[in-house]
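Hi, here's the filled form for the chain we discussed.

Project: internal
Contact: R.S.
Residues: 749
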Amino acid sequence: MSSVKDWAAPTPISENRSGLIGKGVDRYEGRLKVTGSAPFAYEVEAPSPPAYGVLIASPVAKGMVVSADISAAQAAPGVRLVWTPHNVPAQGERGAKINPRSQRGSNPALAPRIEHFGQHVGFVVADTLENAKAAAALVRFTYEEAPADLIFEDNLAKADQPEGEEDMRVGDFEAAFAGAPVRLDETYVSPLQNHAQMEPCATTAWWDGDNVTVHTSIQMVKGGQHTLAETLMIPSTQVRLVTRYIGGGFGGKGQAYDDLTLAALAARELGQPVKVAYTRQQMFQATIHRPAVHMRVRLGAQADGRLDAFALEAVTHCRRETPFTEHAANFARSLYAAPNRLTGHRLVKLDIPAAGPMRAPGEASGMLSLECAMDELAEQLGLDPIELRLRNEPETDPETGKPFSTRQLVRCMTEGAQRFGWDRRNPKPGQVRDGRWLVGLGMAAAIRGNFLLPAKAGVRIDTDGTITLRQGMTDIGTGTYTILAQITAETLGVPLAQVKVELGDSDFPPAPGSGGQFGAATAGSAAFAAGMNLRKALAELAIGDPNSPLYGDDPELVTFGGGNIAVDNRAEPLERLVARAAPDGVYVEGSITPAADARDYSQHTYGAHFAEVGVDPDTGEVRLRRMFGVFAAGRILNAKTAMSQITGGMIWGVGTALHEYNEVDPRYGSFIAQDLAGYHVPAHADIADLSAMFLDEVDDKANPMGIKGVGELGIAGAGAAIANAVYNACGARIRDYPLTPEKVLAALP
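And the returned structure, exactly as it came back:
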């Protein structure tokens, strides 16, 4: 399928004769998880008794490991090995590739040069976890410290344009902004945030000759396999990486960490399996985080609210040696119309742990700024916030001029407003009370780009009729197992119970993994292609088999349904056909690649958030009273898992607005919050009446099934809706997140 025209043709998915597409099917692996039977990486049973590894972290932010005294640790009970930067086995240089086709370069562990607090500088393996922990405490290091840049706000003057990037300009923003009769120029600050996954990074590794098997918690199977191969300096064919289940990723497990490298190295050294898991503190200090963002928003409008000038400029930070840009302005390039536009990014390099993608990277931070700025502009103009957004709805992509593949943002806002009761909003802040609580309503738009990446899938039918889908995709808790089973069952016209799904193995046909809201569309499209190829193979098998009631028929007339293959009223069960004509079963593969002409369309998912909050004017406490969202995200594969994802994202938005932040201790370069006692995510008591709905939509420019992702759309704009509601409740306009009671009290008029 090289053209989107091919994708618009009727398919088993669009026909949905079995009714499985869109149905709220229970999770495929749900029972295993709730009963504790799903083995996560650290729980995988190794082929022989394992040893246990413990990582030692640096207490300094920058410098060198001068020496290490490991004698006491080596003499401790049960200790099998003690490694430091001075005796760790040889590894590939950082970023090096011996295989030019590798997706990722080498990621060596235990380097002598310290680049951030919490960097791993030692590793102890013992017969038990307790003995490994005790021995790790006996290692003594000597450090040579160096001056470090630690605090983002103190280094804003050092911001540079990210390498290889340019500001995006349309028209003459400066002149248009200067001449606009109504102007807004404000800076918004979103803080550093941590992923706070339930499952820590963990690996179980063992060797069989020259081949290593690793069970690890990583979102990208192929990326992890290639990173480990390059680090160990062996061919990727000698590395089998398996990730059956992941206890939360959110972008924070999109890369390999030291647990993977050191477990594999130690297992090879000892000739026995090794297990390594991060502590909660190590998850904060030694994995990636969402960086803080300073975003300057400038809007210039006519008196009727139509934007003439539109600028978003973001300054963010990263680890000095690992550049990463939080593209907090990119989403705005396709959101609102304005003839004169400027968007761009600047980057501050610091000596702190690495920044990286976190759920809705860019949108989560950026929309906290723009969607509040739009409300502030609406107040200046005396317009309803929704009306201002409607007046700036573009007909085509404002930057590229490309047509939208689909765009139902207006309907998301208008239908959401009607269902939420937006007409009851008092536009003047601080006018509505419920007892001691000041009550306010707020809204914000949502946008997240749609992506399709190359992927493959394999599907097999055996003589008992069991259909097995295999793919190197991962399920980070989003329901991937379930939707792939639904796609496969609907495509082949069999009951859902007849389909078996196996994921997360580098030996399976490759998929890009979970992330970026592309997982379902990419993996699902490959699974659909494999299913269609199996339909073709089975049709050819039937019409070529003299013993089949379909013998000699036209393959174009063959249909699938109820577990049967049929032409008109002639049919036979699939298992009977396969048992007779293909006793070894039938296996095929399918693949998906982006259509060349898909680039001719601007593709996104959309939504609108509505929030009602209460603010205590005496304490500054903010409580969410209700929240509602309307979203347009293509064809919905599973009503239950899609709703879980979108409402989960909305809950993240609550955390972003009211709770979540971390800071760097200027004395040590450590994060002040290092566990879930200090880093506050929303609890049950923080979430009251929260619900959402999806609009009917099929985007035939997106992929053969017309589906899109939803995992990151829910957080985009959600925090801004709450911030706007807080302002409506009490008149406190706070541009520095989160909206803590102290900030609310200080901002009260």
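Let me know if anything looks off before we file it.
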